Amino acid sequence: QGQLVESGGGLVQAGDSLRLSCEASGRRFDRGVMAWFRQAPGKEREFVAAITPFNFKTYYGDFVAGRFTISRNDGSRDNAKNTLYLQMTSLKPEDTAVYFCAERPSQSAIEIRAEATYNLWGQGTQVTVSS
Hints:
Elements (H helix, E strand, L loop, with lengths): L2 E5 L2 E4 L4 E8 L7 E7 L6 E6 L6 E3 L7 E6 L7 E8 L8 E8 L15 E2 L3 E6 L1
Parallel strand pairs: 2-11
Antiparallel strand pairs: 1-3, 3-8, 4-5, 4-9, 5-6, 7-8, 9-10, 9-11
């Protein structure tokens, strides 16, 4: 099944930067789409960014507006440890949320923003941006 563990969240001020990491282990993760979602208090979980395997094509939510960058390190063929990153800059108070990483085994970009298409999730990491 594998496991996803996020880290890197914290309390920052508006305008600051933060890098989130998601360590994937337990099986190979270099063949599926990996993504970040977030959920603010009282709101539904929303798509932040996704990255495909092999060609590393990236997709972002409209609110990102060039402020975030998703990347992945798929390691070597013999190393069943992959890491997903989300570099966030120019953070705003409205970016405050729990950020989750997610994975789906398909490499297709079809419905890449749809939460329901991802079947493995991490526990989340809290990001709080003060004004």
